[in-house]
């Protein structure tokens, strides 16, 4: 399967899981009910990093992605946002916080890049940028 179709297939799987004929357990989950799973998968990924176990890291990243997909699907069903909104926001944020890569800002070191990132992040918080706003 081509790599660019894997994500499309993953989205379709989540659509099926949450459809009328989908999984009863999946359909009744909420953001709050999934918190323990997100914590568990994150902890398992951290443990895999510490062990240097690349195969386990790949598996646990997949489990974390399940959580991202799950929360996005719940929000979509609530009419809030969907996975595409999450990705679009992430793209905007990465570009905004890397003006030394995607803009005209010059940095001479990693330290300057980190300072720039933190300065932009602080400005975003002060200006109350809405996570899924336009």
The CATH H-level homologous superfamily of the largest domain: MazG-like
> What is the fold-level CATH name, i.e. the topology of the largest domain?
Helix Hairpins
Low-confidence stretches: none
Tally the structural domains. 2
- CATH hierarchy class name of the largest domain: Mainly Alpha
Report the strand count.
Answer: 0
Order of helices and strands: HHHHHHH
Number of helices: 7
The share of residues in extended strands comes to: under 5%
Average pLDDT taken over every residue: 92
CATH architecture of the largest domain: Orthogonal Bundle
As a percent range, the share of helical residues equals over 70%
What is the CA-CA span between the terminal residues?
34 Å
Structural class: mainly alpha
Largest sheet: none
User: In one word, what is the shape?
Assistant: globular
Rg over alpha carbons = 18 Å
